[in-house]
Sequence to fold (319 residues):
Amino acid sequence: MKRSRGRIFIHHDGALGDVLLSLPCVRHIRESASAVHVAARNEIAGFLLTAGAVDEISSSDSALFGPLYSDSPDEPVKRFLSSFDGAYVFTVNAASTLCGNMRNLVRGTKTIVTIPPQGYSVHISKYRLDQCGFTPEEATDAEMLRVPDALNKWANDLLDKYGFSQGRDLLIAIHPGSGGKRKCWPLHHYKALIKMLMKESRFFVVVFSGPAEDRKTKYLLSGLEMHRERIIHLHNEPLVRVASLIARSDFYLGNDSGISHLAGIMKCRGIVLFGPTDPALWRPLGESLEVLRFATGELSCSVSEESIFRNISSFFPIY
Fold:
């Protein structure tokens, strides 16, 4: 496709999962632009650049953009934005001061509302594509991220260090956390499942935890690693490294979280567990992850560790 729209600025200050659900829009924007600059949360922006999704980045938390939230944008941000030929703002509030300033400073700015109205039943990526003016047929096509060779080497070296053997072991990536407790399959189920996996010598487990996890979760996961072989617990690992291990994994399991959206983008087969959120709207992009829904009560959960273990094992029959 001919690139004729010049340099495009995208402002997207959402969390990881929210940004990844906008990647089909970013891909379409980039196809017709000479360059795409994304302002996003610092680590997310860095990941998008490393993974080849965008051409330039800045942090949405930068002091440069602070005046856009006031009634009087200053000269530095005006000069910065004057170098762009168009802009997109991904936001929950199209009437915000930020959006108004962007429309005044960059001709043809489009505001993309990230949360649909109540009763909307189509996937979020298609809702956003429609606002961008693109056809939604390729909304699940997310082939725009790559893991650089250096990170692939880092992942292989780490696994080698822990005794993982290519061709013998199967790598299971697990992320038991999420940005909201109600979105999480109960932690004791993850603990029981990991213990079941460790009873079979063919499984090797890498577990991720991040800043959203509480002390109890981090303590439990670290304890599992300490007392068992063939398990790695990585806490607050840089996003690019998490991506390299997920891309390297044979199976992924996690809640409705940004890391699960990353697994979907990386086309890792596996299971994503949804609680109160509607997966018809919010499931990860791609077709590699199976969605299971759980409902919790005080004493029970509709999805058991035994059923998940059987599901995982079914992917890897013993001959």
